[in-house]
């Protein structure tokens, strides 16, 4: 379902319809996509703050 992160609503609908509303797959689909963006932004911020450590 991570590959379908561009289609968040579709990924959630498929996970819920296949595995049920109370399943771990539906929860992972929702939480995974919601956590993915802040983690990527944090990694970019860390890379920008430490770029002076590395030679060009």
UniProtKB/TrEMBL annotation:
Protein name, per record: Arsenical-resistance protein Acr3
Species classification: unclassified sequences, metagenomes, ecological metagenomes
Gene Ontology terms, MF aspect: antimonite transmembrane transporter activity; antiporter activity; arsenite transmembrane transporter activity
Cellular component GO terms, alphabetical: plasma membrane
Keyword ATP-binding included in the entry's annotation: no
Cross-referenced InterPro entries: Arsenical-R_Acr3
Record's keyword terms, sorted: Transport
């Amino acid at each position: 379902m991570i590959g379908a992160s561009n289609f968040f609503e579709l990924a959630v609908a498929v996970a819920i319809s296949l595995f049920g509303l109370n399943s771990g797959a539906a929860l992972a689909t929702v939480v995974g996509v919601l956590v993915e963006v802040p983690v990527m932004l944090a990694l970019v911020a860390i890379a920008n703050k430490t770029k002076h450590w590395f030679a060009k």
